Amino acid sequence: MFKKWLGYIAVSFAVLIGFSIVNTEQQVSAATEPHYTIATDTTFPPFEFQGKNGKYVGIDMDLLAAIAKKEHFTYKLTPMSFNSATQSVLSGQIDGVIAGMTITDEREAVFDFSKSYYKTGIIMAVNKASKIKKLTDLKGKTVALKTGTGSAEYARGIQKKYGFKVTYFNDSNTMYNDVKVGNSDATFEDMPVMQYAIKNGVALKIVTKPTLAGYYGFAVKKGQNKALLQAFNSGLAKIKADGTYQKIVNKYLDASASKFSGSKADNTTFWGLIKSNKTQFINGLVKTIQLTIISILLASIWGIILGLLGVSPYKWLQGLSTTIIYIFRGLPLMVLAFFIYIGLPNLTGDKIPAFVAGIVTLVLNEGAYIGAFVRGGIEAVDKGQMEAARSLGLPYGRAMSKVIMPQGVKIMIPSFINQFIITLKDTSILSAIGIIELTQTGTVIISRNMQGFKVWLIVAIIYLVVITLLTWLSNWVKTKIK
User: How remote is the C-alpha of 98 from its chain's centroid?
Assistant: First the structure.
């Protein structure tokens, strides 16, 4: 029994490691040019956002592409939330970040910045029906802020003076909608970003003039990737000199928003949203299913081992099982994901691919829950069964595999299917470390067209269809094992 499970574990981890190696090799350029991994925000138009063709576009994206061409280096783009992007650079997972990042004294303590590539200013925006017109009107009100941004730092700096409360969000669209529906009274944002959002249909209005002029810069971890930073500065100077820089800026600030987001029909009707984003939805669903299947298979193996250890005749093995289950059931999934993807590389100095980090996170978390109900399923079998098997001369391992487990499995099967569904939904949390699964796909699409209700309804329907199919599978399995 144990040899059998050890074999399964070896094969499964070999498959996972093989997948990781292939995935990593595909990311490395075959050319001799330097190759880097660059992080960017997923929802910060007009600097970075997903265009109607599914590719990431924006001022930052075009600048990076033009600079890379001038300086002869290649890169892999990793879109994620701004906060995750900066932490990934500091952990060594990512080589650099370009995400409309304001250069500040605090950030310069941990990052090395390029020459500034854009000057901006911070404004306050409110709901179109709001009576708020100036900062003094914010007393006792709630202000929505985007985590880790220069606008958030500015707001915190004046919070005590003007007496407002703050609430935080990881993406711009959710922040805007919180103000739109009235949960928050105002928000602070960079001037060109808010102008672009309003131009795309966000129902807010700007009520203050730009203040606290900030400068955007490309960033790397302090003391590292000096060659990349030098290449960025050199390339930036070249594209400013030949006029490419100004053409890129004008392209996004002057052009109609529909040029990047698609026609009105593609962005306002359900069918148009599905048709124009079908590739993104399919890719997001495939990624979600990949994460779910691989994770549940490995988590099942890990959970069964924990469950068997939990009913072992040796007290120390029972204690080990109980401790592991307690730890990984107690840790919030997002905290565990950040610890594995960002915390461990800080400790070991070795990079962990986001997909692998996501799998490990789900395996540890879901495996703990599986271990708990496997132990419960085994303990639910009458103790006399084991005593009878041992009295007939069967050793403990054989009695467990031939007598106890077959009976316990019947009790566990519904819980296994239910855990499959839970794992499917838990994959959405992994968007925090840069995995573009189904939920993050919805967030990215909304940043382009601002159609939050319709896009989330489409995403919800996709989840419900998949979960319904799994429920039918669960009911079919239960009828077969009775």
Answer: 17
Residue 3: exposure state from Cβ atoms within 10 A (0-12, 13-18, ≥19)? exposed
Burial (0-12, 13-18, 19+ Cβ within 10 Å), 55: exposed
Alpha-helical (H) ranges within 144-277 are 150-162, 172-180, 191-199, 226-241, 244-254, 258-261, 264-268, 270-276
Tell me whether residue 376 is exposed, middle or buried, using C-beta atoms within 10 angstroms of its C-beta: 0 to 12, 13 to 18, 19 or more. middle
Q: Are 344 and 327 in contact (CB under 8 A)?
A: no
Phi, psi of 332, rounded to the nearest 5 degrees:
-60, 140
Tokens found for residue 277? 């984003």
- Evaluate whether 367 touches 306 at the Cβ level (below 8 Å): yes
Output the CA–CA distances (angstroms, integers) from residue 440 to 119, 171, 434, in the order listed: 29, 10, 9
Beta bridge partners of 146: 169
Q: Is the pLDDT of residue 262 over 80?
A: no
3-state class percentages of the chain: helix first, strand second, coil last, to nearest 5:
65, 15, 20
Query: What separation in angstroms does the CA of 447 have from each of 147, 272, 287, 330?
Result: 16, 16, 20, 33
Mean pLDDT of the chain: 84
Other residues' Cβ atoms within 10 Å of the Cβ of residue 177: 20
Q: What is the pLDDT of residues 136-185, one digit of tens each?
A: 999 999 999 998 788 898 999 999 999 999 999 887 888 998 999 899 99
Token duo for residue 144: 């929505």
Spell out the alpha helix ranges (H) of 92-190: 105-108, 150-162, 172-180
Residues in the chain: 482
Please tell me the distance from the alpha carbon of residue 340 to that of residue 357, in angstroms, as a whole number: 6
Round to whole Å and give the CA distance between 426 and 291: 10
* Model pLDDT for residues 186-237, shown as the tens digit of each residue: 999 999 889 888 887 788 999 999 988 789 999 999 999 999 999 999 999 9
Long-range contacts of 297-301 (CB under 8 A, 24+ apart): 297/12, 298/12, 298/13, 298/16, 298/359, 298/363, 298/367, 299/362, 299/363, 299/365, 299/366, 299/367, 299/370, 299/419, 299/423, 300/367, 300/370, 300/416, 301/5, 301/8, 301/9, 301/12
The percentage of the chain sitting over the pLDDT mark of 90, rounded to a whole number, equals 45
Rounded distance between C-alpha atoms, residue 49 and residue 42, angstroms: 6
Please state the φ and ψ torsions of residue 235, each to the nearest 5 degrees. -65, -35
Q: At what angle do helices 452-480 and 172-180 cross, to 10 degrees?
A: 110
Q: Are 438 and 426 in contact (CB under 8 A)?
A: no
Question: pTM for this structure?
Answer: 0.73
